[in-house]
Design the sequence.
């Protein structure tokens, strides 16, 4: 069982930055790939959009095309934490951001993840 808690969301102006954190319980955190998804207002859970992921094995990273060069995902296994550094934020990045854990290999598919956090709201004003 893995429990995830996100933090770091908030209100920021376009062009600004935020750093989201996802802290996990459990002693096997290093065996899980972690992803960030976002859910825009009015969208259903199954339509959560893949944003970024970091693999369990070699910390390879994967990104949604529209966030490449602006967002950076990283992990600190000693702290059971994954970070999402978001720079040059745009109004279209506004959403609730969720972290999710999947044993071993990463996936960009929302249904592939077994564990989810409660989400953290990000609002980017124009």
Sequence:
């Amino acid at each position: 069982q893995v429990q995830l808690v996100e933090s770091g969301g908030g209100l920021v102006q376009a062009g600004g930055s935020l750093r989201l954190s996802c802290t996990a319980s459990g002693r096997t955190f290093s065996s899980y790939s972690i992803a960030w998804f976002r859910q825009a207002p009015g969208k259903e859970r199954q339509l959560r959009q893949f944003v970024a992921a970091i693999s369990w094995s070699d910390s390879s990273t994967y990104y949604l095309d529209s966030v490449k060069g602006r967002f950076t995902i990283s992990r600190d296994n000693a702290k059971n934490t994954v970070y999402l550094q978001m720079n040059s934020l745009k109004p279209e990045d506004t959403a609730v951001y969720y972290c999710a854990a999947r044993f071993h290999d990463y996936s960009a598919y929302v249904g592939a993840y077994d564990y989810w956090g409660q989400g953290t709201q990000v609002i980017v004003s124009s």
